[in-house]
Design goal:
With 463 residues, the chain is α+β, with helices and mostly antiparallel strands. Helices cover 25% and strands 49% of the residues. Its main location: secreted.
């Protein structure tokens, strides 16, 4: 019997671990190909500036044992004619670099008791290929890791051109020189590929980070599961926490599952969940950034033009104060092609009597409905709202019942000048999207889906 209790508890625990992401990023084959092209350019630049370690040794030759040195081994030109990224479902990525042509220059010396020669040599290598297998995963801190499992290199033909006098003597050294260069390149080229991948991995860690929305509110991204590799894309699932800088509390909103489209027409797709947007608005409200009380001054004479019953109770003109309060955090709802924001408000209208007393005239609950557009600007998701509808219900009246809908136009004007602007300003600050150094979103398009906002974008690398 105890076994079943343990089984139930373990099942519940595992269910909690399988949390849905607040943000899902999908890197498509097109995006990986673009990243590969960037990597190849940087790889070529690094190789052209790299001087490989010297080689020294002894070799049996025509006149006995000679000492040799091969120094300043440097690639002067490199051409990569074919490269590709192959995704291995699960967690594997294979980088294939084929048909590479390389020209290497080096200095050499030969000497013993009888001879002392030195010179330069140009070595051309054709049909060189490199295959690198990688695994993508994460560590216990939620950092994205890319580890190289192996690197294999193969070479085709080698041509050697000597640039010194006395070739008749040391032409026999060419075969050994070819062997030295081949050995050096086999070890150093794979090492450079691995180092290049490690550098890019360090940049990938920037996808996980903390961003400041304002002095009070932070947004923290972290991977909740290891990256998942499919046949034509890689998915990254992020947990996103929104909290006070001084007090980290979990959001009450739970992300619903959503799926990204099976497309390859953009380099990157990203889904921003409805729960994350509601967490942000709740945090703004809690920090009183969007909690707002406004006072709007008018007179009973002005108010009686909208509600005639006011004149029956206030024959003399008195100042009137209208207080508008946001009573709860705005709620965002995402449906297909529909982005709405509901803001609950409470409105109290009071007369200021001659004896300085304040007498409430009426109070209404107001539900403000905003329609919104989501756009991408400066690597941020920005929400632009505008008033769509206003629903009113009378909760108190000292002048008897009246048609509360008569207040719509008047309150709409008041709300658009008091309550809505600070909320719109908060939403316009935007949500910082996870990005990498020198890599920027390009031609981003947003679509509102059920439960999430889809961002489709290409990428642009700034060299």
């Amino acid at each position: 019997m105890r076994f079943w209790w343990v089984f139930v508890l373990l099942s519940l625990f595992l269910f909690q671990l399988e949390a849905n992401p607040e943000v899902r990023i999908r890197i498509t084959q097109r995006g990986l190909n673009y990243a590969k092209e960037i990597g190849m350019k940087l790889f070529e630049q690094e190789l052209r500036t790299r001087i490989f370690p010297d080689e020294t040794g002894t070799e049996k030759y025509l006149f006995g044992i000679i000492d040799y040195t091969v120094s300043r081994i440097q690639i002067t030109s490199i051409s990569i004619y074919n490269s590709s990224v192959v995704l291995i479902p699960g967690n594997g990525i294979r980088l294939l670099i084929k048909n590479i042509s390389v020209t290497v220059t080096t200095r050499w010396t030969l000497n013993n008791w009888l001879i002392d020669y030195q010179g330069e040599v140009d070595i051309s290598i054709f049909e060189l290929s490199i295959t690198t297998n990688m695994i993508v995963t994460q560590n216990n801190r939620g950092d994205l890791l890319v580890s190289v499992q192996n690197c294999q290199l193969s070479m085709g033909n080698i041509e050697v051109q000597l640039n010194s006098e006395g070739r008749w003597y040391y032409n026999g050294f060419v075969q050994h020189l070819e062997k030295v260069i081949r050995t050096r390149l086999e070890s150093q080229l794979c090492l450079n590929v691995i180092l290049r991948i490690q550098k890019e991995t360090e940049v990938l860690k920037e996808l996980k980070g903390v961003f400041q929305i304002n002095p009070l509110i932070q947004v923290k991204y972290s991977l909740i599961t290891p990256p998942e590799v499919f046949k034509s894309y890689v998915d990254l699932d992020f947990k996103v926490s929104v909290y006070f800088s001084r007090n980290h509390t979990e959001s009450p909103f739970v992300a619903a599952p959503f799926t990204l489209p099976e497309k390859n027409n953009y380099m990157l797709f990203s889904g921003i969940s409805e729960s994350l947007l509601n967490s942000i608005t709740l945090t703004y409200y809690t920090t009183r950034v969007s909690k707002h009380s406004s006072y709007f001054n008018l007179t009973t004479d002005t108010l009686s033009r909208v509600i005639p019953q006011v004149m029956q109770h206030y024959t003399k003109s008195h100042p009137v104060r209208m207080k508008l309060m946001v009573t709860a955090a705005p709620v965002l709802r995402l449906q297909n092609n529909s982005f709405t924001i509901e803001i609950p408000c409470f409105v109290v209208v009071s007369a200021l009597l001659s004896n300085s007393m304040i007498k409430p005239i009426f109070a209404v609950n107001a539900s403000i409905g905003l329609k919104a557009n989501a756009v991408i600007a400066k690597q941020k998701l920005i929400v632009l709202p505008q008033l769509q509808r206003l629903y009113l219900s009378l909760t108190y009246s000292s002048i008897g019942s009246f048609q509360v809908q008569r207040l719509k136009n008047f309150l709409s004007y008041s709300l658009q000048n008091t309550v809505i602007p600070p909320i719109a300003a908060a939403l316009k600050r935007g949500l910082q999207l996870p990005t990498m150094a020198k890599l920027f979103l390009s031609e981003a398009v947003t679509e509102v889906k059920k439960g999430y906002i889809l961002i489709s974008t290409d990428l642009n690398y700034k060299y």
